[in-house]
Prior knowledge:
By secondary structure, the protein is of the alpha+beta class. It has a single domain, classed as tt1808, chain A. The chain has helices at residues 14-27, 48-64, 123-137; strands spanning 31-36, 39-44, 68-71, 76-78, 84-86, 90-94, 112-116, 142-147, 152-160, 164-172, 176-179, 185-188.
Amino acid sequence: MVVEVRQPSAQLSVDEFEALAEFTAREIETVSLEFIGGRLGVRKARNGNHGAVAAWLACRCLEARPDLGLHPNLGLRVEEHGEGRALPDGVLAPKGSFAGQGAWAGPGTALMTVEITSHDPDTHHRDRVAKPRSYAGAGIPLYLLVDRDTRWTAVHSHPDPALGYRDVHMVRFGGTLTLPEPLGIDLDTEELKQYAD
């Protein structure tokens, strides 16, 4: 594959990003690419504790709402006009919602996106700043951040395309976090203490 090097002032188009992401997924299995806020991001492979948090959340959500599925690492078109491309750690939506969609699905049926922090330098910007803004811009009702660095969980609600999420409720690992409507699920986060590292 030939990669054209552009001048620093030129921006990557969504089509160029999708071609690059497809190549990377096929040829370099230890990283994935995202395109958030016009910025190319690289996500490294996750560790076992990261996966354990995702499995814990899937079990809790599906026990409370068996009509839903937690779709891991699903590519989503995000931001107000769908110009972004994100790979959330999970997307909670009705079962079968994304069947037949391509590599980058529309967010229309997503009830909640989930991010689990990784111990890397871009975590703050990616998971705490850029992604909440992008998911709110796409109109996704809830964003759940499981922050292993700070040992807090945070549910963001009431998306506003211009402002991001208007409400954030945080609970330290060990407390009970309520995922508001459209979910109405209470999460006992005690188990997360063992996956913080």
